[in-house]
Amino acid sequence: MKPLNKIITNKDTSFNPIWIMRQAGRYLPEFREIRKENPNFINLCLNDDLSSKITLQPLKRFNLDAAIIFSDILMLPYGLGQKVEFEKNFGPRLGKFDLNEVAKIDEIDFVEKVHRVYKAIKKVSLDPDLNNKNTIGFVGAPWTLLVYMINLQSPKKNLKKDFFKDKFLINRILLIIEKFLKVHIKNQIDNGANIIQIFDSWAGLLEEKDLPNYIYSPTLNLVNFVKSLNVPVICFPREIRNYTEFCKIVRPDAVNIDYNVNPKEIIKNINIPIQGGLDPKILLTNKNTLKKEVIKYLEIFKDHPYIFNLGHGVLPETDPGMVEYLVKTVKDYK
Ligand code: CP3
């Protein structure tokens, strides 16, 4: 059995596997070298030779338990024909969403645009180094994708006042997102992904009254879909104020917590396996502080099925030496 399945399926508490969100990325000089030669980020994700190589870069350095495929949640709008670009020091910039154009896209068109992501997953999952490790596929949650597809850039702290103005458009887009997310998930699994993580990075932007429509209901549909394919699903509803209620309603197989969650409180209320929590900024301090914080999480989750990870992605300015120390600290913990 693969390490993450031991925790998620068997509820093992005798060890803590570790992987790191954004483990393949800009804090690694070997990634930056490839990135320098490949200014178009989407094309890099779609170059399965390079994206599979980048996926494996952190595993060559550190004793991690899982690979997460080097891709992006914005592959979905890209596959639907929306323009997606990544600008330095700005982040994603999307082109206007045209419902009439998107309505013409079928499953075959979508897969044709993104199929190299699946090829990369196949390459990664067949790599002998991954025999005893997980291959994680992922998608953005419908809500977070909706935010990007309408807002056309990262929303920072607030949504624009008129975000919800056109409810008809929003509900149509949500249905389209859900349909193609299922296609994207199924293809990732068919090509070797053995865990699916659903990233809802902007869950924290919603008021409580909007959670059922924009988060609970569409995410539950996806969670049930992944479960029907017999693959465990981890949800990360970042900065949602009530993780307990989210878990009760959406029932993922495991939940990733952000760094504002009090780990001592959460184990009292949530009985499914938990992942993550450590503030990525701790990796910018020093080894002593890092060790203290890591041990704190491991102690709190001593008797709870727990996958070590961060409370959000590793920051680009992180010293890879600190990541190495983090992995070693988790692995040496008894
Ligand atoms: O190692 C991994 O975790 C796998 C790859 C991965 C990327 N993006 C690569 C990436 C994953 C899992 C993602 C998820 C993702 N993408 C999320 C959810 C997680 C989160 O961070 O909240 C979101 C919101 C996105 C959208 C996105 N992609 C943003 C906002 C940005 C710009 C900000 C940034 O970090 O640069 C990206 C670009 C991106 N995605 C990069 C990488 C390695 C940086 C690209 C570069 O080199 O410029």
Structural summary, described in words:
Helix content is 47%, strand content 10%. The protein has 334 residues and is an alpha/beta fold. The chain has one domain (19-276): TIM Barrel (Alpha-Beta Barrel). The strands form two sheets. A seven-stranded parallel beta sheet has the order 1-4-5-6-7-8-9. Strands 2-3 form a two-stranded antiparallel ribbon. Helix 11 links the parallel strand 6 and strand 7 (254-256). Helix 9 packs parallel to helix 10 and helix 13 runs parallel beside helix 14 (320-332). The longest helix is centred in the middle third of the chain and has 24 residues, at 167-190. The radius of gyration is 19 Å and the shape is globular. The two termini are 21 Å apart. The relative contact order is 0.14. The model has no long low-confidence stretch (mean pLDDT 97). Residues 21-26, 35, 41, 68, 70-74, 86, 91-92, 138, 154, 199, 201, 313 line the site of coproporphyrinogen III. The site of coproporphyrinogen III (CP3) has 22 residues, from strand 3.
